[in-house]
């Protein structure tokens, strides 16, 4: 039997419904925040990620899926979405569009050759946003607020925003020197990669997976102590906007991010759910003002964020969030002979087009088997088509819950089902009057009646 590749998943059944629901919430949220959908290729020239994400990052040195195509080109399956969006922004001259900034979002698979474990996959799906062309701290705050609002809209309660700033070029240089001075006397205690990182990119020592437990990391210099005045003011502005938006966060000076393109704001959002394990960062992002010109475009300040949909779905399951996933159907149409089957085909088509969720029989089951199948599908109504009723332009429709059966004229079946399904939904409301308030409450409708 051929098995799926390590670190990859088949998403199906209820889990697939949860994914689709999450994606529908994302699409609705993106409309509110006025972002346009962007779809960039799954593979790009390897150089894009080497120059964009960084030569010394784990993602590029250890985790990238590289191959040479039949034309001899060096190709990489994208490990993340930002570099591709920036390439597209430059190539399609989006910077020339008068309506700056360009606000885009994507939702697609990324590939990282990681050691697979819970929440860490080789094929992962990311939803991400990028704002290209704004240096305003308000855009940093917008991206963070958008991420938090997405998690809240989905029903997650236990989330924590960790916020930090890496500062501008000058601040980063000062910080780099401080890290070199700090690690140099002890570098023999670190792995071979970190020895190379010391001179090339000492920031990457801080997120080395091999040396993660070395106590020297804990007491290493912190970025915030090396911010120049301008960077500090900018960071304060981001916090001010977050406060105005009532987005809670914690300053966490150990957040440096594992990708090279960041400066100024960086953040990670954790799910504080029991059972999540160590891969509990739901989403992360930050500002990357130098990336567009580094990839040969005009200087353009940018900020963005991405969240792994797999981790998000896992958090929803662990927090046992109740999601409005449709798991039942409206009507199951049953038949015995070919004439009734033809009518089932016709009626299913009519009712589906009218907006109902309709199923029928496709595997030759007898009536008993069809009733069982209707139960498996949690059918609200069943209908056994029989030639006699059909000749009278009628059908019998049975409410599967109350077991009440009505003989319905086919001319009014849509109205009948509509009415019945709506009244069923009303019955499920929070109180008898249907005022749609959750939990224990004083019923406004009754008050009005009085
Ligand atoms: P990242 O931190 O590498 O950032 O990934 C963002 C999110 O993708 C993570 O927080 C996590 O939820 C998910 N993720 C990453 N790797 C894996 C994995 N192996 N398995 C499952 N989920 C994973 C970026 O990718 C940046 N491009 C974010 C960004 C956008 N920065 C600015 N704009």
Could you describe the 3D structure shown?
With about 450 residues, the protein is an alpha+beta fold. The protein folds into two domains: about 250 residues, BirA Bifunctional Protein, domain 2 (2-Layer Sandwich), CATH 3.30.930; about 120 residues, Rossmann fold (3-Layer(aba) Sandwich), CATH 3.40.50. The chain has an eight-stranded mixed beta sheet with strand order 1-5-6-11-10-9-7-8, sandwiched between helices. Strands 13-12-14-15-16 form a five-stranded mixed beta sheet, with helices on both faces. α1 packs antiparallel against α5 and α5 packs parallel to α9. The C terminus is likely disordered. Histidyl-adenosine monophosphate binds next to β6, β10, β11 and α11. The site of histidyl-adenosine monophosphate (HAM) has 26 residues, from β6, β10, β11 and α11.
DSSP, total strands = 16
Q: Detail the poorly predicted runs.
A: 430-439, 441-450
Strand order of the largest sheet: 1-5-6-11-10-9-7-8
CATH superfamily of the largest domain: Bira Bifunctional Protein, Domain 2
Task: Output the number of helix runs.
Answer: 16
Mean pLDDT across all amino acids: 93
CATH class of the largest domain: Alpha Beta
Q: Which distinct ligands sit in these coordinates?
A: histidyl-adenosine monophosphate
Q: Can you tell me the number of structural domains?
A: 2
């Amino acid at each position: 039997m051929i098995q799926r590749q390590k670190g990859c998943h088949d998403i199906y059944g209820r889990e697939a419904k949860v994914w689709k629901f999450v994606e529908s919430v994302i699409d609705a949220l993106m409309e509110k925040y006025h972002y346009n959908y962007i779809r960039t290729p799954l593979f790009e020239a390897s150089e894009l990620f080497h120059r964009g994400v960084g030569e010394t990052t784990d993602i590029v040195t250890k985790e990238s899926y590289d191959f040479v195509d039949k034309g001899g080109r060096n190709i990489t399956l994208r490990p993340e979405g930002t570099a591709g969006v920036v390439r597209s922004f430059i190539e399609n001259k989006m910077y020339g569009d008068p309506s700056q900034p360009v606000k885009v979002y994507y939702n697609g698979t990324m590939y990282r050759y990681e050691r697979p474990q819970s929440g860490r996959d080789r094929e992962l799906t990311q939803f991400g946003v990028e704002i290209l062309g704004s240096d305003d701290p308000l855009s940093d705050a917008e991206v963070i607020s958008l991420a938090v609002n997405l998690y809240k809209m989905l029903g997650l309660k236990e989330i924590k925003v960790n916020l930090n700033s890496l500062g501008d070029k000058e601040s980063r240089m000062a910080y780099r020197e401080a890290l070199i001075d700090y690690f140099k006397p002890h570098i023999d205690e670190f792995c071979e990669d970190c020895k190379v990182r010391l001179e090339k990119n000492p920031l990457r020592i801080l997120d080395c997976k091999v040396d993660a437990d070395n106590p020297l990391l804990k007491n290493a210099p912190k970025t915030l102590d090396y911010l120049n005045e301008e960077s500090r003011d900018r960071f304060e502005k981001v916090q001010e906007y977050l406060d105005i938006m009532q987005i809670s966060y914690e300053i966490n000076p150990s957040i440096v991010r594992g990708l090279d393109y960041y400066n100024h704001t960086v953040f990670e959002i954790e799910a504080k759910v029991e059972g999540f394990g160590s891969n509990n960062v739901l989403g992360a992002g930050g500002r990357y003002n130098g990336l567009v010109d580094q990839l040969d475009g005009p200087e353009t300040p940018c900020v963005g964020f991405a969240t792994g949909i797999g981790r998000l779905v896992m958090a929803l399951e662990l927090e046992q969030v109740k999601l409005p996933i449709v798991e039942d159907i409206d009507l199951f149409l049953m038949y015995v002979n070919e004439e009734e089957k033809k009518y089932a085909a016709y009626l299913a088509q009519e009712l589906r087009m009218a907006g109902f969720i309709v199923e029928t029989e496709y595997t030759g089951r007898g009536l008993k088997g069809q009733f069982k199948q209707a139960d498996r599908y949690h059918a609200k109504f069943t209908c056994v088509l029989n030639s006699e009723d059909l000749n009278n332009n009628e059908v019998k429709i049975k409410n599967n819950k109350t077991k009440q059966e009505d003989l319905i004229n086919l001319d009014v079946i849509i109205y009948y089902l509509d009415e019945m399904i709506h009244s069923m939904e009303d019955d499920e409301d929070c109180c008898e009057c249907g005022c749609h308030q959750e939990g224990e409450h004083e019923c406004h409708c009754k008050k009005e009646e009085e």
